[in-house]
Amino acid sequence: MKNIKIIAMGGTISAHHDNRTDLRNYVSGHYTGEDLVQAIPEIQEVANVTIEQLSNVSSTLINSTHWLALKENIEKSLNDEGYDGIVITHGTNTLEETAYFLHLTVNTTKPVVLTGAQRPFSGLSSDVHLNLLNAVRVASVDVSYGKGVLVVLNDQISCARDVSKTNTYRLETFQSRELGYMGFIDPDHTVQFYRAPIRKHTSKSEFSTLKIDTLPSVDIVYSYAGATGTMIEALINANVDGIVMAGTGAGRCSDAEEIALQKARKKGIQVVMGSRVGSGRVVPIEQYKYLEAPTTDNLSPQKARILLMLALLKYEDDAEIQRIFDTY
């Protein structure tokens, strides 16, 4: 059997409430990774597992410090300690962001799988048990090698680049919208893949060999009818390094926001134009050509933020940053 390391981070998968039917007022961090594995003895039939508790918090508290610690831990575990794969238990609220950061930065071809739960470990009909078991299954099969960082919940396998949480409570919350799932874990306990990621990731990513101590400051501005540009002005005053414009429709913004973005560009702040709609590419349009702002392809604003943070570690040129968004 493969040797799999489970890194526990907290989240709903670790949560408890005394009332088994209360699926909303639970507290994360009640159960450890060891508690979860002990409750699922079937895991021992799939792989030899080792558990490390890296944190035990709600994913709303996850930040770049956790990402950098995870990257270091994963690479040490896979490259130095000889583990065959990694499973990370994580809260679902920001799971997709942690997954995408690792997808871009971890230098390995071995499986790295994130999982979580929509219902707490203490809840009636909790999805914790099967999600964790299936994540270990995916991390343990050879066909998972070379596919980047994967997200496994609800019997479904998703690419870290494409997947987003799309529902507050339903079990099928993680969707890749127009691109679809990469595969499934079926009732015969087999892992079935039907597609693989084309964009660069993990060991093929230029960011996987960077020494990263800190990340640039990048924020997201959400556009809406009648937006005044006040948020952009505040970010200019805060001296941020970059702004992701989560525009309306195909990546447009209000006149007031456009004027504020001009000020940001003149101050040397990198701006990228994205969309709030959740799917579809954002491409350059003539109206904003003078801003010389790269566009975010089909990345969600939260993922465009991560890619811009990494791009700013290496590049200042707009054309190079656009190449990064076209490649990753």
Automatic annotation (TrEMBL):
Report domain Asparaginase/glutaminase C-terminal positions. 218-325
Residue ranges of the L-asparaginase N-terminal domain? 3-197
Gene Ontology MF: a single term: asparaginase activity
GO biological-process terms attached to the record: asparagine metabolic process
Q: Return the SUPFAM superfamilies for the record.
A: Glutaminase/Asparaginase
Q: Which UniProt keywords apply?
A: Hydrolase
Enzyme Commission numbers on file: 3.5.1.1
Q: Any idea which residues are catalytic in this one?
A: 12
Q: Name the Pfam families on file.
A: Asparaginase (PF00710), Asparaginase_C (PF17763)
Q: Which SMART domains match?
A: Asparaginase
Family the UniProt entry places it in: Belongs to the asparaginase 1 family.
Q: Which NCBIfam families match?
A: asnASE_II
Give the protein name, as stated in the record.
Probable L-asparaginase
Q: Which organism was this protein described from?
A: Sporosarcina pasteurii (Bacillus pasteurii)
